[in-house]
Every structure is written in structure tokens, then in C-alpha cells.
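thread: overnight batch results

M.L. [08:02]
morning all. the overnight job finished for the chain we discussed friday. pasting input first so we're all looking at the same thing
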Amino acid sequence: MQTRQTNPPDSSKDKDLLVFSAVFVIAVIGLIFIFVIIPSGVSENTAAQTEQEIGVITNGETLIEDINTCLAKYTLTSRDIFFIYSDTCIYSNEMKPWVQQLESRGNSFVWVNTKNSSAMQIVTTCLAGVLKYEGTPEFICPANEKSFTGAFSSINELENFANNCR
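M.L. [08:03]
and the structure it wrote out:
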């Protein structure tokens, strides 16, 4: 009969496995810290700094004052109605003739094509507290801090929005 010998457990291999496991866990925690915790803290600070730099304060009158100051840099006013549109959007194209009609009646619209990066920069900077940018078209009235995304159902509805922006 053949006897099979078993070796006693090698404690040095167990220790090596334990050390490797500990190092692995510490490395994973370090990576989570580097890629999740640190960037989220930096982005919050960066967003707060950006808001301070452009003067966006979202508490009532201060926002209007900052909007007016920002728009004035571009010879615009809070009484202007911002019409953000895309040439490829069917709803934007439906709104264009109505906007033109209301302009002929004395309403002041600022046409902002989403392809125009400098115009979009003005909108995102000056109207950050009002801009929804959920799609096009979007109408923004800085005077009363109201915005409307989508097509109005009638020219009268658009005219009411414009008249409330004076």
C-alpha cells in the first residue's frame, strides 16, 4: 500500500496572501479617493468660483441687478426677450415667423442660434440663473426671470409671454 504524505500548511504562503490582500484593499480605497472624492470636491469649488466670477447670485433682486450689468456689457437689456433656436429644430422654425411678427409690433427679441458659440456664451454667462437649456426653442425673459422651453401653441400665447417681459 502506498502512503501519501501531506505537507503541513505553509504559513509563509498564508502571510504573503494576507499581505497581498491588505495591499490590494488599500490600493482600491486609494483609487476611489483619487477618482471619486477629490474630483467631486474640486468641481463644486470650481462651480462656486465661476458663479462668483460672473456675478450670478440667485436671490431675487441681486440676480436681476447682475443680469442687467452683464447684459449691458453687450448693449442688451433685461427687457429683451431671448429666442434661443436651432436651424434644425422644427419647433424653432415654427416660432420664427411669430417672433418676426411680434418684432414688427415693437417687441425686442434677441435671436440666439445654438451654433453661434459667442452668442451662446453671452446667454450662459448673463442668464445662467434663468436659462434651462432643456431644448429648443427656449424663450427667456430676464426682466421677470421667466423662461419657456418648446413651441408656444399660438402667437397669442407667445405675445402674452413677451408682454409680461416689459
